Amino acid sequence: MASAIKRTALKLGMIPADGIGKEVLPAAQRVLEALGSSIPKTTFIPLQAGWEEFQRNGKALPEETIKILKEECDAAMFGSVSSPSHKVEGYSSPIVALRKHLDLYANVRPVSSVKIPNQSSYHQCDMVIVRENTECLYIKKEEIKTNSDGSKIALATRQITSTASSRIGKMAFEIALRRGKEREQAKSQGKSVWWNGQPKVTIVHKSNVLSITDGLFRESVRSVKESTNRYDSIKMEEQLVDSMVYRMFREPEIFDVAVAPNLYGDIISDGAAALVGSLGLVPSINAGDNFVMGEPVHGSAPDIEGQNIANPIASIRSAALLLSSLGYVEPASRINAAVDAVLEEGQYLTPDLGGKSSTTDVTEAILKRL
């Protein structure tokens, strides 16, 4: 991830994009602003991208947005994007393009449970899904051919490289190493830690069917641990992706850090949101070696756009995750503690969690807790 550097000021690119992104990203900005002097003086730079931008100007990701992010910004926040389910000439997802332009090769998605009063079920869950962000089927190389009998065949190219697989594997092991140290520190301070085993990385693949592509992913990630003694304290195991989904819902408490190719990582991290109550709670960062971009896991939710009922928590937690990755761990912890307190109290919950509160209500409640 981007290295922690002492800064006197921060410049954050703010890309609300489409749908409820325009409602939840301002909520995250308000929370960051409320931190005051505990973080460097922060300038928020509004930037354009998305399906609506494509409809206005013919480009989903303007060159100016890329230029400002690369030349002026220390990090960024992204809201949500609406992508049509059918092919539109000239359009491609701006979030996928941003990941490539900024070499944000990892999507890091923590999934952590909080006891919410009105939830009928509770799963003990505290895992991180580390998703390779640049290849697999997301290289978007597709074609359609017509056979001699007039029938059609659609083909998609899936790309897995040892380079991308090794570096995502290294990030997963580094995250597991850090989480292990944090748990040990917490225990030494007398704090409750539910995970008492050694740190663990689970490699998710389907190499029993895709023996070449997933086989390369599996072997590349395994070699990260096997080539050094740095990760001797970390247990390594594997799960076929279908088994991973089953066990994740049956016994989520057995997972610590999971690492997966792009498509599998996308699916299991969205599915894991069901374990904690809602997609509206789950944050992520797109991370590279030199840049980080926060992004809530949920989509643009056009059915609730403009109604002030979108859950802002995923966006607010993404801002906290971004701060933590930049080295501002204490203010990030303050944000997460405020969010947890509001959820545990249960008075201010948006409709996705069974409540009747607005986006504004929840944001105000979190600000008060700060």
TrEMBL record:
Claim: Cytoplasm is one of the keywords in the record: no
Gene Ontology MF, one: NAD binding
A cellular-component GO term for this protein: mitochondrion
Family matches, as Gene3D superfamilies: Isopropylmalate Dehydrogenase (3.40.718.10)
One Pfam match: Iso_dh
Keyword Kinase: no
Keywords tagged on the record: Magnesium, Metal-binding, NAD, Oxidoreductase
Organism superkingdom: Eukaryota
Record-linked InterPro entries: IsoCit/isopropylmalate_DH_CS, IsoPropMal-DH-like_dom
Single Gene Ontology BP annotation: isocitrate metabolic process
Residue ranges of every copy of the Isopropylmalate dehydrogenase-like domain listed in the record: 11-366
Cofactor(s) the protein needs: Mg(2+)
Family per record: Belongs to the isocitrate and isopropylmalate dehydrogenases family.
Annotated protein name in UniProt: Isopropylmalate dehydrogenase-like domain-containing protein
Species: Kwoniella dendrophila CBS 6074
